Prior knowledge:
Two copies of one chain form a homodimer. Chain A has ten helices and four strands; from the N terminus they run βαβααββααααααα. Chain A is of the alpha+beta class.
Amino acid sequence: MRPTITAFANSPDRGRGLARDMRVRWALEEVGQPYDVRLVSFREMKEPAHRALQPFGQIPTYEEGDLALFETGAIVLHIAERHAGLLPADANARARAIAWMFAALNTVEPPILDREMASFTERDRAWYAERVPMLEERIRVRLAELSSRLGDADWLDGPFSAGDLLMVTVLRRIEGSALLDALPNLTAYIARGEARPAYKRAFEDQLAVFTNRSPAGS
Amino acid sequence: MRPTITAFANSPDRGRGLARDMRVRWALEEVGQPYDVRLVSFREMKEPAHRALQPFGQIPTYEEGDLALFETGAIVLHIAERHAGLLPADANARARAIAWMFAALNTVEPPILDREMASFTERDRAWYAERVPMLEERIRVRLAELSSRLGDADWLDGPFSAGDLLMVTVLRRIEGSALLDALPNLTAYIARGEARPAYKRAFEDQLAVFTNRSPAGS
């Protein structure tokens, strides 16, 4: 059954692939599952029809027959459970790959999102310059721990998995930052993710939404 | 195989059951799985032996034969997949319960943790009084959305699940706050969780660690 996901009609990242539909698109491309996309405006996201699918008024959602899912982690896990390619067959290795999914979303992403949110909501506050080093130190600690665990491996635990997929998309939020550039094994890790054909297809598809949206068609 | 989890030797919450081992203990009690606990000090948590189990130097960890897991969400999911009682049998209902697990950890908990962290690290800063309302507004939005979805149901989606288990433990972090007390269906939801026999057993066990640790044995 061909699933339908939702994505921003006007992504605030202007097609840089940082919106969370990118994670679901990439997972679907990795497993070779075609899908449809329904674009929603910021206004529609907060209306009852969308909230029936996503109680917190966000994207993406995932609809497949009778099933309606929200939360990117849960959607990627659902895809990974139903198709080969995103989770190892060995039970223990599978559990560890799922641990990396949670680690990406719960341990590594929160300080990165906090830094990002402060740059949107507190940039004009008197305290901003003083808070930024505190926020960046929290990111630095997590990145150092992640870098240390990754070492010179290609992926976090054996072959590429849904854990790597989520971790790469989380790290991409600070791609090009001094924080990340200080850890070459992490920048190489992101580059390996971005080099995957499934990543490239997903990226092009989400970028096309932004490009086509432009009145000039550019 | 009897698993071993790690927990704080000296929990900073003084036995209030807010440390993340409580989530794993509760899950193990729900499914009737006995377990052992290894207590670790703050110093030990940051040492290589513990980081081999938990790359970010945190608790809990979960060891079961050859398997070593970290991330509370992944551990609770692992327990829920191997025992009856925490996930519905129906495939779609199961996927939705997992979505609530991710929602608890990724959507509801982050603003609650941010508020908590600010109270620890920014209380003496000049900007603290001005930031608190910003932090609380983010929590208020999420709680209102959650309250609206829960309505007058007992649990988030059908019978009690691992999603409810994680959501109740997340909400307990702000138990007694005006933010939460403004939403009686959420306070009743927490009370239903806390009334479960498995919750009570888990709570008593983690409290005993704190009580026994006290030099006075009190």
